[in-house]
Predict the 3D structure of the following.
Amino acid sequence: MAKNHLKRVSAPASWPVGRKEGKLIARPKGSFSLEMGMPLVTALKDVLGLVKTRKEGKLVLNTKSILVNGKRRKDEKFMIGLMDVISISDLGKSYRMLLDKNGILRLVPVSGAESSVKLCRVIGKRAVKKGRLQLSLHDGRSCIGAAAHSVGDTLVLGLQKNDVVQHIKLEEGCNAYIIGGSNVGRTGVVEHISGNLVTVRIGDEVADVAKRFVFVIGKGKPMITNTAA
């Protein structure tokens, strides 16, 4: 049972779930860390409030079209995480998973062109055969990259074809979304980069943020709506 479930009281602090509403909660299956992702059924029940019980959630997943990043998902334990897009066909609504200023995972409503893309942060790269580069992305996937791609950059994926439609570099002037530390959930503009430290202007404030917590979301204008903060 321990492999399939978690104790609610031991669920990650980033999950907005009632700690005393039962003993167990589904353990997600996926590549995100537990702090950055949760089971699909938990998102439907505890985050969106679309169902009241896990049983109702399983029924909805089996009978309705619930899409995650453009693909229908029926597994209640399928892990959804940071920047994933959930679309509910019957309601005509889409949501993106983000962290709020308290580090809690939230589903933010998105529409139009924004619901058709997902942003992925490059967290690693290595050389593979024939001089090609393999990029590791924050959601566990990998893809073939180019010399211009660096750790900390963002790849914008088109969900219809699941292809890379844009590359946004981590550089001065880019729009940044903070995914950790004391400024988690806030957005700003990168002013300076020095080694593993990034200086970000957030409104009237200036903050030094660890590079690993900086998620590039645009250049000149953010590509995503951040109402979670």
Remarks:
- The mean pLDDT is 92.
- The chain has three domains: 5-110, 117-168, 174-219.
